[in-house]
Amino acid sequence: MLVPLTRREIALAISWRPEPFWPDEERLLRRLRQALGGAGGVSLTRLQAQILAGWAEQLVSGHYGRAAAAPEERAILDKLRVALDQQP
Prior knowledge:
Structural class: mainly alpha
Number of helices: 4
Number of domains: 1
Strand order of the largest sheet: 1-2
Largest sheet: 2 strands, antiparallel
Shape: globular
Radius of gyration: 12 Å
Helix content: 55-70%
């Protein structure tokens, strides 16, 4: 699936997990780094999009279940949710 992230959003997403823990996270980070050199957007598998959404949700979750996010973080999460909802 193609997720229409800007280069700035991709760079921000990479900064969320500088050291991957799982091989799937390493593959996702590699794909994001490759996308930085492209024209915009990143092609992800459903699993990779779910991992990235998990990172974003972890980052933006605040106390007592409230979402506390910067506009760019919220935009990334919104784009990921739309992309995941469109895929079966």
